[in-house]
Structures are given as C-alpha cells and as structure tokens.
Amino acid sequence: MKEEQKGRRRAGAIIAIASGVALLAGGSTFALWSASAAFNANSDVITAGNLNLVAGGSSTSWDVSVGRTDETANVTDPATQALDLTFASATDASSAQANVNATNQLMGHSVTLGTWLAVPGDTVAVTMPYTITLTGDNLVADLTVDPSTLVKEANITNMSFALAVFGADGKQVGTTATVSSTSSTTPVNVATFQANGAGQSAGVDDKDASGNTITTVGTDGTAAVTLVVFGYFNQTTPDRVDATLADTLGQINATLTQVRNA
Predict the structure, then answer these.
(1) pLDDT above 80 for 78
(2) What is the pTM (predicted TM-score) of this model?
(3) Domain residue spans of the chain
(4) Partners of 229 in the β-ladder
C-alpha cells in the first residue's frame, strides 16, 4: 500500500514538473529590462520664418525713349521720393531699349499712358513698388512675373516687353529679363533674393548659378523694390500697320516663390 502511494506521489510530481516546463516554454509572460527618462525641452521652440510680397503705392509711367535730347531728369518713384533707377550695365539697359545716361541711370519724363501716343522706336517704363519679406535662415526666393498678365489683348507682335527690378538704392537687382511672349503663362524670373541670415553667423551667402552672391534683404527681413515693365514699340514695325495700337496693361501678377536650388 505504501509503495502504491509513493508511486502515485512520484507520478503527481512528474506531472507537475512537466506542467511547469510547459508554462515556461510557451505560456508565461515576463519583462526584459528597460529604462526611460524625460528631457525638459520646453524652451527649444521651432519657429517658422516668413515669406511675403506686398504691392504698395501707385504705378507711374515714364517716356524713356532712346534718342530724346531733353530727358535730363532721372526717373523717380513717388513712393521713395527720389529713386534713380540705375542699370547694372549698359548691356542690360540696351536690351530694354531704354534711354540711359553715361552712368547707366534711366532717363525720362513722366507721362500719362491714357494720353501718351507711342510711335515706332518709343519705349515706356511703368514702375511698380513692392515690399518683399523674407525671414528664415535658409530662405531664398525668386521674384517672377506672369507674362500673360502684362497686356489684356492677345500676343502683340509689334510690342516688345522687358522686366527689371531695382532696389531702394536705385541700383538694379539681377539682370533685365526679356519677355518672349505675352501669351505664355510660364513665369519669367526677374530677380532672386535671400533672407538676411541673422542667427546664421557660421553660414555663407547663397550664390546663383553663375556664382554671384544673391541680393540680401534688410536686417528687418524686408526690402523695398521697384518692378519696372518696359514696353518697346518695335522700330521695324511696317508703315502704319499699328496706327491703332492700343495695348492695355493688365493686372500684372508678380510672385515671390521659395527656391531650394540656389
């Protein structure tokens, strides 16, 4: 009898051990070691910069036709009281078919487009003031114009248009851009600007594709610029073909767009 009880106890023990092994092998859950810690980064705030373009003041129109001898006054913008528009070089000035003096200053006299009558060889310059805002350590932006907004009519074959941008100091920013077609909606890049870079003391100025330093906005993140649209009545226009020429400037759309390839 005692031997039988011992046998039963051993069998029960074997069953219990076997069950324990089964639990350890498959069904039991236990934690691997881990640790965590929090870091107080409440003072490390990521702040976005800003990009903006605002049209300001009124446009002005100037007769800057080449060949006039009475154009002794520099073109000025009432918004800045005294803005002498100066081309970067004579090449840029001639590409716009504009009258400039020996120091590349744009010369002309004020006109009212509604009453001014153009003849072949004449050039009109329409100035439009803008304020650019760029704040951001790595912010570079192109100022472009939609050529299809220059005139309300369809593409004009006997009028040529060019675009240029001048800073508050009157000096040209970038180069004069020729408008190939006023039917195109492809933006024409007129100038490129970069943010001032305050807080980026270890950085370097951005360069354009030619290696030139891109124009920097002011320390307050803004720049007052003047967009100038040149309209040239082609001197090669056949006799009196455009005697009824009436190109109406449209609502010119300028856009400031961030770029990452400068």
Answers:
(1) no
(2) 0.78
(3) 51-259
(4) 126, 163
